[in-house]
Each structure stands twice: as C-alpha cells, then as structure tokens.
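hi got a favour to ask and not much time before my train. below you get a single protein, a line of residues and a line of whole numbers that encode the local backbone shape. could you go over both lines and see whether the tokens make sense for that sequence. a few lines back from you is plenty, here it is:
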Amino acid sequence: MLAEKMENNININNVNSQHSEEKRIRVGFLVAGVITLLLIGLAGVYWFSGKSPTSLMVRNSQPGAAIFVSKSSPAMVSLLVNPDALQSLVPKGEFSQLKTSLLAKSNIDYQDDLKPWLSNEITLAVTTRDIDRDPENGLQTGYLMALATNNSQESREFMELLFSQRALSGTSLSIERYKGVKVIDDYQEDLPAEKIQNSLAGAVVNNFVLFANHPKVIKEAINNLQAPDLNLLSSLEYQKATQQIPKSSVAVAFLNLPEVGKWQGLELAESTYHSQILSLVLDPQGLLAESTFLTTADVVPPSLPLSKPVGALQYIPESTALAIAGTNLSNLGNSDLAKLWKQGTATIYGASEDAVSRLIQPVVKIQENLGLNLSQDIFSWVLGEYAIALLPNSETVIPDWVFVVEKTPQLAVGIASLDHIASTSGFNVSSLNLDGIQVSAWTELTATAENDSSINVDAKVRGVHTTLDNYEVFTANLKTLTAVLNQKEKSLLENPQFHTSMAVIPQPNQGYIYLDWEKSQNILKSQLPWLKFVEIFGKPVFDNLRSLTISSYSSEAGTLKGGVFWQFN
C-alpha cells in the first residue's frame, strides 16, 4: 500500500502539488494531536462505554523513548499503549472518528499508514528551550516525537511517503547520514518564520520513528542514544521519579520544574520541588491521575495518615458542591502541601496570596464579614478532624458553608476567641433555642426609624454554631444549620459517588478534596472565569464528568504523592 502511494506521488503534476500543500503535516498539529489523544482519548473510554479496562495490558511502565531525550529536557509525555488497545474499550467507530479527526490535515490514513507498524508507545518531548542556544536571534523550542515501531521496513516506507508528499508540495528536502542514521528534513533557514515553524525532520532509530521540528533535534536525540550519560535515563532525579510509576499506568509525564518554568518564562518561586512524575491509571469507575513531586528538602505531611473516611463528614449534607476533610489544620502552613501550593501559585500569579483569594473567594468573604484571620483565629486550634463544605444556594451564586470540628481540649478556647472577635467587630453574640437545641449566633443588628413612634430592627445572621455529639458544627446561617440538625438529606458519607471515590483513593492518606462537578459549576465559574474556556476545549470530558476527588498520600521521604480521581457518567 505504501509503495503504491509513493509511486502515484511521483506522477503527480504541479497542479496537484498545490493540493498537497494544503494537506501537508504540520509539527504543531502533531503536537496538539498527541496531547489530545492522551487527555481526551484516555478519559473517553468511560463515557462511551461501561466496559472494564482490566483487559487493557500495559507492557511497559516506563517510556522507552527516554533514551533519546536529554536529561535537561523540560517535559516528556508518553502514551504507553497502542491506540487500538484503547479502541477495544470504546463502541465501534467512536475512537476511529477521533483518530480520523487528528489526522485530517495530514493526508495520512491511520489504518493503512500507521497501524501496520505502530507499537505500544507514543512519546512527545520538549527537548530544549532554544534549539541553537543563542537567545540573541530569538528562542525556538525543540520538539521531539517518538513512535515505537514493530516493523522497521513499514515505518521506513511511511517516512519516505511522508517526505515525498512534502517534496511534491514544493518543499526542498535534505538527506544526510548522521552517525550511521539516515536523517531527512525540509528545514531552510532562509524561509519566512511561518514556514520554518512548519518544518519537519525525521529518522528511524532503534525501533522508533522520530519526528522533530528541526534536524538538530534529531541529531541531539541520536547523540543522547549513543552517549547514555546525556539522556534522561542517566538523571538520578528521573530514576527516582520512575520508581513511583504504577505498573498499570497507560500514560506518563515527567516534568523538570525549573526548566518548565524557564520554558514558560516564569521564575520558579519557592522552589521546594524540582521534578514531577504524573501517571494515568484506568479504573473501572474512572481515571486516576497520580502525581509525585520530588525534593531534597525536609517536608512533612500536614497530619497523621487517615485509614478511614473522616467522621466529621457525617454532618456534611449530600448536596454539597465542594468538601475538604482531614485532620490537624494547625500544621497546614508548614506542611509539604503548603510548600507545593506556595511554589505553584507564586510562580503562576507572582504571589501566593493572589491565587488563594481567587480560588477560595467564598472563604475570603467569610473572613471579611467576621474580621477573621483563618490561620491564626481558627486553624491554630483545629487539632482533630475537620470538614469544610460549600453548598449551592438557589438564591445567589455565593454558596452557603458548613464547618465541622472534632472536640479537643483546645476547642473551648478557640470558640471563646471567635466570640470575642465577633463581639469586638460589632456583632451581637447571643444564644438561641433552635428546635430544642442550644445554638450560638453572631448577628448584625441594624435599626431604622419608620416614624416618630416606630423603630424597625433587622438582625442579619453572620454565623451560627452548636455542639453535636463529639463535634462542633458551624454554618453560614440558621437555614443551613437546621438542615444539618434535622438530617433532611443523607450525609456525604452516604453519597454513592463519594463512596466510590474513597474506594479508589489509596489509604492511608492525609485527607481529601471532593468536588461534585454538576453542583459546583456555577460556584467555580463565578470565581474562576478562565474555567469556561477550559470547559469549552474539553467539552466531551466536562459534559460527562461527575466528580473530582483529590488526595495526598505521601509515604516516602523527599516525595509528595497524591492523586486526582475523575469519575464519569
């Protein structure tokens, strides 16, 4: 089939050359295609089919193409299964349509051109921030794609076909032998910038078909292969990171965080963590994205590990949009999680405080209303279990909230401190009887004179709390507290979605963040406007997303390991 196509291409006239130009492969398109295949293709198996992925065999848990990638590479991402293996989990035609759409502009047919030789790995790497390492003439990022082949002859024929098509479109080709390897490229320095961006170089090396946006990237890959001390496998950081990859991972990404920061033009602030390994594991109920950050610094978990769900969640209604649960908030600021948060937010936003205020605006609003400093006035005395939840409010985008704290010797002192803060902030601290239960309330009283003999007094509740068994329950208002007291609905612990997530998240762990996607959308979009664009880009994912559960479960020194479990309809 390939030989026939090559022969036909030789006879194409100049009129058809213009048509070939419109269909030629673009490096940027290949890059976007692989990323789309990894993120959407993997997640897609769940909403297209209820089939279990247990039949999906992962032959290699580590990318073989790492031998071509420099140990100074900013990033590398790999799909570790053949695309046809994923297709076996999806109704006939769905995954084929995805592959067809990815290759639509390339004049390549997956069935005829790729399937005969494509094996069990597709790797994409950012090899260098600047190919010629000369910032004076501008920065040109180097990209390398490596596709594992199980038929060298077929893959070489594919390479010839690909470049023959580009030659017929008017592109000048260069063919040379570099250290025994045939390298083909159409890179020309005198071309306009737009055409240089579409340049392509290729070679077949050691059971891999290599593509790059510059011949220097291919040659560097060959150097890395022949001088093992140059490639990623020789990096001690990478070796330590790959030990964290689960054997059942279908995709893996490795990030050199300082280099990623430089590549994106960001200064890596609070540089506690130096690298990250991300693995995707298919589960019958969803997709687990497990991430490990590595550091040489001393880091500590925020709390002792939990071997069962937090009991405070029994007072969190099932209808909650977002819930955070764990133990010992007093140590949160000095923990490994806090250091990771500071590093990430300070790098992206310039200051971690800006990111915090954007992400948890409802909580910031609570601080403003009550004049609180959460870290000093609340977190410092929360030594036992805790649960924080945001509940949708049908009347406003600002959600209601619930805060549950386990009783400890420090609890009484903490509550007295809160009452004092409320009082000095101008609120009335009073005791109420609510359905036979004693409740403390913080209210704001305002008086308005309607006439000479009538004064209207309005009381706005800013917060209420009461004791239930071994816990203190705080809520935004009496309505929310009444719902908790009367148990009008099941608790979050009885929610099937939450129960499924808890079964997937490894134990012991340091707590978790649970987000019901459908119920939290309005809250999140009101605080994070950019989320609307992310949702549009990943519409198939978000249309079928049920919940997200995030947890940290570090167990080794120098590592912060956690996971995000995506549960789909």
